[in-house]
């Protein structure tokens, strides 16, 4: 059993650690792209970042509400609904599988990962803030 206030921290870590790893991979890929491609890759990154921030914001609010409704002492499985755990597992497996695909262009890695990684980190921060805000009220 775990106090539910730690579930916000756990959710933040589950989203934040992969977010940092993905962001680092995207930034490293940016270092290897042609300078002439930077302007349009930057636009793609901004689009990916904005899209994921908007999508993750709704998910974070839903999951924070779920945690808030959980009993004070609960299990870690109350951090996310079943669909949320499936999402985490599928995204992790997809990320690991992409490592083994040899023909993914460096431009894709740079633009997509540099948008997705920071969006995951922002979601992680929102989880941790959500826990602090809900504890005060």
Describe what this molecule looks like in 3D:
The protein is an all-alpha fold and 137 residues long. It has one domain (2-136). It is built from 4 helices and 2 strands, in the order E-H-H-E-H-H. The protein has helices spanning 5-30, 38-69, 82-98, 106-136, and strands at 2-3, 73-74. A two-stranded antiparallel sheet has the order 1-2. Helix 1 runs antiparallel to helix 2 (38-69). It is elongated.
What is the structure about, briefly put?
This protein has 137 residues and is mainly alpha-helical. Helix content is 77%, strand content 3%. The radius of gyration is 17 Å and the shape is elongated.
Helix content: over 70%
Which percent band covers the strand fraction? under 5%
Tally of individual helices: 4
Helix/sheet category: mainly alpha
Question: What gap, in angstroms, lies between the N and C termini?
Answer: 23 Å
Helices and strands in order:
Layout: E1 2-3, H1 5-30, H2 38-69, E2 73-74, H3 82-98, H4 106-136
Antiparallel strand pairs: 1-2
Helix pairs in contact: 1-2, 1-4, 2-4
